[in-house]
Amino acid sequence: MKFVTKLFLAVLLALLLFLVFRYAPGEIMDTRKGPSIKSTLASTYGEEEEDHMHTDKLLPDPLRHGQYPNNQSDLWIQISKEFIIRRLGYLDKRDGNNVSINLLSMQYEKKGHPPAIFLKIYDKYNQAVSCLSTSLELGSLKGRDTYVLYLIRSPPLMPDQTGSVSHVTISTNKQCLAESDSILIRIVEDKPPKYNFGICLHKAFENLSPKVIHDWVKLNMELGAEVIMLYLQMKAPQEVYNVLRPYIDKGRVEVLDWQLEPPLTSVDSYYYGQTGVISECIWENMHKVKYLGLNDADEFFVPLKHNNIPDMLRELETIEEARRAGSFIFTNALLRGSKALPIVTEALNSKSCDGLRVDSLPVYFKRSEYCLETGGQSVKMIVKPDAVFTAWGHLLLSYRSDKYLKEYIVPDTMGLSYHYRPGWNDYKGCTTPIKETRIIEKFFTNITHCSVL
Fold this sequence. Notes:
Elements: H1 2-22, H2 25-30, E1 38-39, E2 52-53, H3 72-75, E3 76-80, E4 83-93, E5 100-108, E6 118-123, E7 128-133, E8 135-138, E9 147-153, H4 159-162, E10 165-171, E11 183-189, E12 195-201, H5 210-222, E13 227-232, H6 238-249, E14 253-257, H7 274-284, E15 289-295, E16 299-303, H8 309-316, H9 320-323, E17 327-336, H10 342-348, E18 369-373, E19 379-383, E20 388-391, E21 396-399, E22 408-409, E23 415-419, E24 435-436, H11 444-448
Parallel strand pairs: 4-11, 12-13, 12-15, 13-14, 17-22, 17-23
Antiparallel strand pairs: 1-2, 3-4, 4-5, 5-9, 6-7, 6-10, 8-9, 10-11, 15-19, 16-23, 17-18, 17-19, 18-24, 20-21
Helix pairs in contact: 5-6
EC number: 2.4.1.-
Pfam family, one: Glyco_transf_92
Membrane topology: Single-pass membrane protein
């Protein structure tokens, strides 16, 4: 009996030793179910080397990632206060011969070029597939934004590296040691979009009034936008979300958290990382929207010959040069003065609009005179997301030049970008005579619910 007991213990010990040596610590980490890691990324910038123990954290929900409300740690990975990476990446399969993983990062521009980044790919079984170097592409022009976009791109991937990508981690170590928390990966591929036309507010905001945003959304919908995306900073008033809630519930508006601000960053960014907002909105909509307008909360793309923007886009598709273009460029029309649209006077004199007050009307009903600003940055654009890698508010920076031309200039007789900035009265940049416009009148009844007979 003693012999049998000793034999059993010996076999058990041998089995335990086999398991210990078979699954070494490195392999155990590669098959982990959560992103529990050590990180010494801060040492990249010459800071004191320090181990940051990351706790086990579930992958972000792919359907809710970025949506309001969210936490900074769920939105960003901080390599340092000067260099941060969005916790959502894209497996770009638009070109089957050049498949790559793309991440969006923001770098404090005074610190120069970011450090080299290495990428570890995991499949849906949480198995490590590859550790790869990456390239960094600046996605910004000289401007006032403090944090600027760098597109992190993997080299072209082989089929065995992309078969079932679930997430990636990043590191400044070329062996992909000291990994970050997990970064969710979405697939972008060449397939028919769900919507024809959408709009993105091209910078994050915190100090715009709920009324301004509400008025902006309503007119864009009347102009033909099927989906609208907005990015919030931390201090944006809750009321913005509240007034948009009916549109959010219908799937017409998506409100996302951006939160590019301290304590995540070392300083505030002038436009809250505008180049990052623009590029993320484009990447997010590649599989969803055929045409995406990029404008500010006081700007609107206005068709002059058609009832709405989708009708105008359909005509542009009949022009060969426009059909091949990756973006449509619109001249800036400066809406000046305080001369309201004639329909406002008619409504005020009407017995059917007793509750109407001029001070409560959107600004686009209270201006009817404009001039054109030409040259420089005085344009806005609608892009084809399928064409783009990175973009600025006024032009494409990098795009699929093997398939698309850079841009098509939309004739001023077909469409303009109406710009209702408060300070235009003192602006000297007009290059054309002042004209009158009544185009926006046709949306008055639907927006105000006041019918003028």
